[in-house]
Amino acid sequence: xxxxxxxxxxxxxxxxxxxxxxxxxxxxxxxxxxxxxxxxxxxxxxxxxxxxxxxxxxxxxxxxxxxxxxxxxxxxxxxxxxxxxxxxxxxxxxxxxxxxxxxxxxxxxxxxxxxxxxxxxxxxxxxxxxxxxxxxxxxx
Amino acid sequence: xxxxxxxxxxxxxxxxxxxxxxxxxxxxxxxxxxxxxxxxxxxxxxxxxxxxxxxxxxxxxxxxxxxxxxxxxxxxxxxxxxxxxxxxxxxxxxxxxxxxxxxxxxxxxxxxxxxxxxxxxxxxxxxxxxxxxxxxxxxxxxxxxxxxxxxxxxxxxxxxxxxxxxxxxxxxxxxxxxxxxxxxxxxxxxxxxxxxxxxxxxxxxxxxxxxxxxxxxxxxxxxxxxxxxxxxxxxxxxxxxxxxxxxxxxxxxxxxxxxxxxxxxxxxxxxxxxxxxxxxxxxxxxxxxxxxxxxxxxxxxxxxxxxxxxxxxxxxxxxxxxxxxxxxxxxxxxxxxxxxxxxxxxxxxxxxxxxxxxxxxxxxxxxxxxxxxxxxxxxxxxxxxxxxxxxxxxxxxxxxxxxxxxxxxxxxxxxxxxxxxxxxxxxxxxxxxxxxxxxxxxxxxxxxxxxxxxxxxxxxxxxxxxxxxxxxxxxxxxxxxxxxxxxxxxxxxxxxxxxxxxxxxxxxxxxxxxxxxxxxxxxxxxxxxxxxxxxxxxxxxxxxxxxxxxxxxxxxxxxxxxxxxxxxxxxxxxxxxxxxxxxxxxxxxxxxxxxxxxxxxxxxxxxxxxxxxxxxxxxxxxxxxxxxxxxxxxxxxxxxxxxxxxxxx
Lengths: 140, 649
Hints:
CATH architecture of the largest domain in chain B: 3-Layer(bba) Sandwich
Strand order of the largest sheet of chain B: 10-7-6-18-29
Oligomer: heterodimer
CATH architecture of chain A: 3-Layer(aba) Sandwich
Strand order of the largest sheet of chain A: 2-1-3-4
Low-confidence stretches of chain A: none
Radius of gyration of chain B: 30 Å
Low-confidence stretches of chain B: none
Strand content of chain A: 15-25%
Mean pLDDT of chain B: 95
CATH class of the largest domain in chain B: Alpha Beta
Structural class of chain A: alpha/beta
Largest sheet of chain B: 5 strands, parallel
Number of domains of chain A: 1
Number of helices of chain B: 17
Number of strands of chain B: 34
Radius of gyration of chain A: 15 Å
Largest sheet of chain A: 4 strands, parallel
CATH topology of chain A: Rossmann fold
CATH class of chain A: Alpha Beta
Helix content of chain B: 25-40%
């Protein structure tokens, strides 16, 4: 029997809101699929286009970028830069043939463990029918 | 030089080991390049756990360690300190979060173990490229700013000032005192609120270490822990407090009448007014929004009658710049808006009041001089219905949370009503009685047993006016009977919510809010008075609904936390800041534009980072087209390596 496709997801989380929110999901013992490996950075504003492309190149089936809610950035306005950059990256990815569902941005505060849990669950569900991402992958 | 890395995974009892096969992770990592020591241990954070790490570093001459355990917010400091004890730089210690972000959120052991291995390898890749760094030391400004002059702010300011530190207390309204000064008597002792509050207000005004700025608002906050720079807008009161003799002649001639905020609209005040007789500072304020003729002076009657010439129409707003080392935020609460509660007739029927309005009716200095009279016809109400949980505990329509103080103040209201109107009958509709607190349950029992308050367990479905009565329809779920009361007055225990403007202030301060808009504490249990922004602390109902003793306790706690900072000679700033590769930098200035801290400047065509101002967010590094600027120990190279192993296997 063919093994079920398990999408691989990289989640770039800002330290202050989204990583703390994902910690809260843990503290609250919420459950979500283990397909996601988090990489915590200081601010969503520090997530460069290269990180996202790298993740796809290294075999990610989906990439999530998550930061503080607009207006709540720990670093004042880093998430606004992230939002602008992410909009462009989304268009770029679409242009080169990556399904837009594979790249998501969300706002998760330190109080939103439940929201983080739902985002991961939904993301995995959305990626499953798409199958593996091979367009940018270099290690086929 | 080849790196010698040590890897340790903690069982955390069964918290990690219950879902992650820790010995497998340890075994797998022992084969990973550069790892020359790998082990699992039941509690890494325990003394023996830390000793094992220290011993391994010394014996095997490790130069980097990675601990796979709980979130770095909990034990990163513990392990970094231990690494330092063992003789390596604390920045050579990295944490892999395999508990909150792995073992606690998954069920499948095999998959959780695979994920834990990836997380651990990613942390090793990060550690492999970590630089050794020393904290940057900065001096401390030994003054504090307290925002909000209610009981919490007053308590914090007094505690700080009595510890010998200068305090700036900023209050946006014309007087300090907050909501507590509006209250009649306080549960469970029935102390007169003004009698216990005014001595503290006077102490604030006379304290040589406290600079009181009323009618003032925070405009801008810059800087960082130990060294904040604050711009405060001091609004003009158009009255010189040094000349004003409180003769009250001005209010007699002022032609304007607007709802009196202090009396919650139960009475009206003039455009020139003193909020209440014991106001601190004791002076009048001219409310520019309601004065008919300030620019140009069309009326000026108040100035004409002011014998000492205290009224100065030329007074201008002032911007004060202050430097402080620490900030306490105690912006308090407001009651849930009446516009939200139309179903209970609040705002529609004059004799449907909220809890604070009823406090004013009870107050000896209130609009009725302590007599309970209906606002509509000034008759004494003989049947009063008190409704609890109005807006609280209602996740579908209003606030999901419990406002905590309403059970107690409703019992107090019903009791005090009975003390004023001997032949009256108070009814209370409640969902549950929450009377946790010293002498609180006894107080509620006293209301029921001695004062004959009738408690009805159930919700009110409808309130409407019929003649001069207010019909209250509800149900008593204990007897199963429908209840109809022809009430003379209804008092709603409205939910508490964060005070208006608190979220805008939080943005200026860069303090996070919780899901309900209250200021978020750094940890719900262990850091309840700290905000997530270092150097800023929380006190009182701004953080969550709480009663006076809790607010006072938190305010004193916040003051001590501020003293922790102010008593230091120097503070240490994280050295994980941006650094520029001058060869690659073209001086385009894009990093300068995106830096929220103005920490980057162009000097001789190259970007230069101010290491004290830089917070290390890395937005500059993601913006730079030449990869010429990066944040130490979270470099693009490190992140790329982490991505690779996080996706491996």
